[in-house]
Each structure stands twice: as C-alpha cells, then as structure tokens.
C-alpha cells in the first residue's frame, strides 16, 4: 500500500506531490534538479519553508510560488529562468 511508505528525502528538494504520497517519477526528479540549479544560481532556495509546525511548512511547500529575484541579475541569461 502506497500510504504505508514513509516519506524520505530533504524537504526543500522534494517535489510537492511526493509529500502527498505520490510515487517518484522523472518529473519529481526534475523538480529536485530545478531546486538544486536555482540554489546554485542564486545562492538561496526558491521557496522558503516557513511556519511554526511541520504541517504549516508542508502546506507552504505545496502552495508557494517560486521566489525569483525581482531584478534579474545581468550575469544570468534570461533564458535560464525558463529552464528553472
């Protein structure tokens, strides 16, 4: 039963669908890669998991929008945003 499987991984890099018990897929791996590339590019995570409780942090992870820089750095090609 899929519901009996524990969730494992680093929360910031887990695709939101994995937190609700969905199976790992190439898309969830792409999500994790995207988070890693975002962090390497901007030296921060795309979503800040804030909240007092684990439930609040998980809710934020599933509903938050990616926090791209307000002013795009001139050293980063604009096409990179589409990839991220």
Provide the succession of SSEs.
Answer: HHHH
Please compute the radius of gyration using only Cα atoms: 14 Å
Question: Got a strand count?
Answer: 0
Shape: globular
How much beta, percentage-wise?
A: under 5%
Q: Average pLDDT, to the nearest integer?
A: 85
Helix content: 40-55%
What structural class is derived from the secondary structure elements?
mainly alpha
User: N-to-C terminal Cα separation, in Å?
Assistant: 33 Å
Low-confidence stretches: none
Keywords:
43% helix; mainly alpha; globular; 84 residues; 4 helices
Write the layout of secondary structure elements.
Elements (H helix, E strand, L loop, with lengths): L15 H4 L6 H17 L11 H10 L15 H5 L1
Descriptive report:
- The chain has 84 residues and is mainly α.
- It is 43% helix and 0% strand.
- It has 4 helices and no strands.
- It starts with 15 loop residues before the first helix and ends with a helix.
Question: Short description, anyone?
Answer:
By secondary structure, this protein is mainly α. 43% of the residues lie in helices and 0% in strands.
């Amino acid at each position: 039963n899929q519901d009996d499987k524990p969730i494992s991984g680093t929360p910031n890099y887990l695709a939101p669908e994995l937190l609700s018990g969905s199976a790992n897929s190439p898309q969830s791996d792409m999500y994790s890669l995207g988070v890693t590339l975002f962090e390497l590019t901007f030296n921060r995570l795309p979503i800040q998991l804030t909240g007092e409780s684990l439930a609040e942090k998980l809710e934020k992870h599933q509903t938050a929008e990616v926090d791209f820089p307000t002013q795009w750095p001139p050293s980063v090609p604009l096409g990179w945003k589409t990839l991220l």
